[in-house]
Amino acid sequence: MIGLLLQGVLETRANFILAAAAVCTVMAMTLVLLMRNSATATTRQRLFGAAWIALVAGVGVWTTHFVAMIGYRPDAALTYDLELTSISILVGIVFVGLPIAASEIFRDRLERMGLGAFTALGVAGMHLTGMTAVENCLPTYNPLVLTAGIVISILCFSFALTRVDTDSKGLLGKAAGIIAGVCSLHFIAMASVSLNMFDMGETGIGGVTLSIMVAIVALSVFAATMIGTFNHRRALATGRLQGDDTLVA
């Protein structure tokens, strides 16, 4: 088991592991900033923030996955189906982003734990969709290892989404849970997979094209998110200063 986990990590170049971890960290910290003041936000402000949370989380998980995949198996020239690669972004937004966003609306602890479990399953769905996009090989999975990755991710996301403290310790705990939930599932899932390569010619997008695609999507969303995050926080601050009586506790 431990050997398989190490293999999943060692088959990815170290610089891409660090890059994927950095992307995931930026995503988690951005989510924490968006979630930080939700308890004092109006219903409208929560819904506005939830839309940004869904976008950031979905695209952030997608970017983390494909940054790591660019550095995966440097001995194999992997190609990707453009349509499935694009669909995996939508899978991330709908099945990862929306449950995390919903945790800002549902306040019950058990409901948040359920959303954490759903988020982990969404990350697994996005991961498997992204792996299905690989064209020139057939991935097969060790079900025990893959299940272990999903269970660990469920625990991490359930921990993260049930953090309600807005002090530094609570926010760091939430961010750490999100990071652990994404990274543990990805690398344990990669440890569970075996790629059976076959030659079908260059029919999909290669590593260079995928790198450009990932960079464009990530930078675009990052720029838009920074603007949206600051505007959202300014709106929250303005509401508090004006003593907005529509604030929801």
From TrEMBL:
<keyword id="KW-1133">Transmembrane helix</keyword>
<feature type="transmembrane region" description="Helical">
    <location>
        <begin position="140"/>
        <end position="159"/>
    </location>
</feature>
<feature type="transmembrane region" description="Helical">
    <location>
        <begin position="16"/>
        <end position="35"/>
    </location>
</feature>
<dbReference type="GO" id="GO:0016020">
    <property type="term" value="C:membrane"/>
</dbReference>
<feature type="transmembrane region" description="Helical">
    <location>
        <begin position="205"/>
        <end position="230"/>
    </location>
</feature>
<protein>
    <recommendedName>
        <fullName>MHYT domain-containing protein</fullName>
    </recommendedName>
</protein>
<feature type="domain" description="MHYT">
    <location>
        <begin position="12"/>
        <end position="196"/>
    </location>
</feature>
<feature type="transmembrane region" description="Helical">
    <location>
        <begin position="171"/>
        <end position="193"/>
    </location>
</feature>
<keyword id="KW-0472">Membrane</keyword>
<feature type="transmembrane region" description="Helical">
    <location>
        <begin position="47"/>
        <end position="72"/>
    </location>
</feature>
<dbReference type="InterPro" id="IPR005330">
    <property type="entry name" value="MHYT_dom"/>
</dbReference>
<feature type="transmembrane region" description="Helical">
    <location>
        <begin position="114"/>
        <end position="134"/>
    </location>
</feature>
<dbReference type="Pfam" id="PF03707">
    <property type="entry name" value="MHYT"/>
</dbReference>
<feature type="transmembrane region" description="Helical">
    <location>
        <begin position="84"/>
        <end position="102"/>
    </location>
</feature>
<keyword id="KW-0812">Transmembrane</keyword>
